[in-house]
Write a structure and sequence with these properties.
By secondary structure, this protein is α/β, with parallel strands linked by helices. It contains 13 helices and 5 strands. The chain has helices at about 1-30, 50-60, 75-80, 105-120, 145-165, 170-195, 205-230, 235-245, 245-250, 260-265, 270-285, 290-320, 325-345; strands spanning about 40-45, 65-70, 90, 95-100, 130. Helix 4 (about 105-120) links the parallel strand 4 (about 95-100) and strand 5. Helix 7 packs antiparallel against helix 8.
């Protein structure tokens, strides 16, 4: 009696232990030692002096910086507002200026300041920092959108355990309708957090709600579709996809220029990055690159539609048992199934 119970406990301990390993590798791998890699910056000035200064900065930094020269301050501001560069150093012997856009990433701005503050000090002048695109006063670090992503993601992938587990006996079409409803509720909660509760979005709230719905629906569709094949391992699967690889590559804490090649590469097409960067484009950068990020979210939604379609076809092909089990055996099987579903929902923890 004790051995099966112990085996049952040890089997279920495997999931949290794998989560521990995965979270450690993902979070420490992505966040532990951020360093600039080809960080795009500009030196503003005309004539050979600017070119020599830019080349000197580039030679000292190596691959850490991509340095370009611009003739005018207005051009630098334009490139900051279109997110082509992360900082611009305006040459001036008496009053050098660093221009940044902190709404794009507060941590990137900190790195750029650390690069140019000593440069200005060598000239014997204090460095003036001008922020042309700050985040709202209610979100001074600009990381509120990342934590909004965390809240929406937890609501979405935790709902997978309920719809996929407790709803396993329902037709796939019914589960798909539940996904639409659950993602709608999650997106309304997210919009409430972003708007009236924490004031992260002072405008375009309905646009942010639409993006949140796209993101949440994609997570839920993929998760519910995977449940048909992964069963009790679904929680681990969605955590790998939508926590370990997702939060770390979203750019919400460190943008890809400060991360290693793996997470920087994921940033280009992962859904969390599409959500965070799309929200920044919508709220702060004149919707400059919004279309690309929206298409990223739509692509993940379409993957979810394909996943749930394939899962529905697989379930239909399996069909139902040819012989109905005896009532006692049927009751025992349903009890075991209910216990497994309850355990699965309890394992769907938020991280």
């Amino acid at each position: 009696m004790r051995e099966p119970a112990l085996r049952h406990v040890l089997t279920h301990l495997l999931t949290p232990l794998l989560m521990c390993v995965g979270m450690g590798l993902a979070y420490l791998g992505a966040f532990a030692s951020p360093e600039p890699h080809h960080l795009p910056i500009a030196v503003v000035g005309s004539g050979p002096e600017a070119k020599v200064f830019a080349q000197t900065v580039k030679d000292k930094a190596g691959d850490a910086l991509d340095v370009r020269t611009l003739d005018s301050r207005s051009t630098a501001v334009d490139q900051l507002e279109t997110r082509d560069i992360d900082g611009a150093y305006v040459l001036d012997a008496k009053a050098p200026e660093l221009i940044v856009a902190s709404a794009g990433s507060d941590t990137t701005v900190s790195v750029v300041q650390k690069i140019f503050t000593p440069v200005a000090a060598e000239q014997g002048s204090p460095l003036k920092v001008t922020d042309v695109t700050p985040s709202v006063d209610d979100d001074p670090t600009g990381q509120g959108l990342f934590f909004l992503l965390v809240a929406v993601s937890i609501g979405s992938y935790a709902s997978v355990a309920v719809i996929g587990g407790a709803g396993a006996g329902l037709r796939m079409r019914t589960r798909a309708l539940l996904v639409v409803g659950a993602s709608g509720v999650v997106s309304l909660i997210g919009a409430a957090f972003a708007g009236p509760v924490f004031h992260l979005a002072h405008s375009h709230l309905w646009g942010l709600w639409g993006m949140t719905w796209l993101y949440s629906a994609g997570v839920l569709l993929i998760g519910v579709g995977l449940h048909t094949f992964l069963k009790k391992w679904t929680t681990l699967g969605v955590m790998v996809l939508f926590v370990m690889l997702n939060f770390t590559s979203s750019g919400g804490i460190f943008r890809p220029e400060l991360q290693n090649g793996f997470f920087a590469g994921l940033h280009g097409f992962w859904n969390g990055a599409g959500y965070v960067e799309g929200a920044r484009d919508l709220l702060y950068f004149g919707q400059h690159d919004l279309a690309r990020n929206l298409w990223t979210l739509v692509a993940w939604l379409l993957v979810g539609v394909a996943m749930i379609t394939v899962a529905g076809l697989a379930e239909r092909r399996r069909g139902t048992p040819a012989v109905e089990p005896a009532p006692a055996h049927k009751h025992k099987r349903e009890t075991v199934r209910d216990q497994e579903q309850e355990e699965e929902m309890e394992e769907a923890v938020g991280v």
